[in-house]
Specification:
The chain is mainly alpha-helical. Helix 1 runs antiparallel to helix 2 (48-82). Helices cover 90% and strands 0% of the residues. It is built from 3 helices and no strands. The longest helix has 40 residues, at 3-42.
Length: 89
């Protein structure tokens, strides 16, 4: 296995990780920012106020982006398994 093959596989894996994490992280970041602005505007300093909306938006994001995420990871895994002979030989 050449160094270029290993680097290409590593970059594909990192890119797939970014793609899988991005929808959930961005939705949690957005709702956290909105709740933080609401808390700053109303001066409500309740720690659990940001937890419940984040949990809810993560569940919604999983329902919305879950099929896309699953198809991407299945395609990546299929390509990885199909390329095992090339990677080994």
């Amino acid at each position: 296995m050449t160094q270029d093959t290993v680097m290409h596989l590593a970059s594909q894996t990192l890119w797939m990780t970014i793609l899988m994490a991005a929808p959930l992280l961005l939705s949690a970041l957005t709702i956290g920012l909105l709740v933080g602005m609401f808390q700053a505007a109303t001066q409500i300093n309740e720690m659990t106020l940001s937890f419940i909306p984040k949990l809810g938006i993560l569940v919604i994001a999983l329902f919305v982006f879950g099929p896309w995420m699953l198809s991407n990871i299945v395609d990546f895994t299929r390509r990885l398994i199909e390329n095992i002979p090339m990677l080994l030989g």
